[in-house]
Predict the 3D structure of the following.
Amino acid sequence: MHKYIIMGVQGCGKGTQAKLLTQDFDIVHISVGDIFRWNIQSHTKLAARIRRIVDSGALVPDDIVEEIVIRRLAEHDWNYGFILDGFPRNRRQAEFFLESYDVDAVIHIEVSDATVLARVMSRRLCPACNLDYNLIHHRPEVENRCDVCNGELAIRGDDTEEAVRARLNDFHEKTEPVLELFMNKELVLQVDGSKAAEDVHGDILNALTTSGGTLAAPG
């Protein structure tokens, strides 16, 4: 069983890498951001509160995040393991998580603030089919149109420069101390996220193999 946490500031490419690892090891990608977006699209009771917070560029409060993660992990649909994306975001959440779960490795994707800003400001989303695009690395075939449904692409409400800079500051202040906690437990694998996605993926697999944080993928 593989139990991983993937970390890095929003826009570092951790969502892409998490999805690739789910294919490698048949594990479940548990993305806090995806769960938030599902609540908003499904108009749940939590949706209005989450939307206000996300649109302001702030992070969702710890108690809401913890409740969502606990509820998701309690589904126990991760026979071969999971990769957790978007949690923990601060030291208290990390300590809370380690009380209940063992972790094989913490994958930290490192990128500069300038790279993150450029990537995030280039992101586009198809509201109809929820497909992500990036004007730098994954452009649609027809400008501003989804390749799948031909719907008009949109910019996420929280992808403004002001919101991105706020998230960067929040990450450096609150989330970097989490890495120190995991480093003290010798769990962290540092990966250069400025490379192309396929190269980053290869580096992650090599790091996991070298560290002993992974076994052969299930057949």
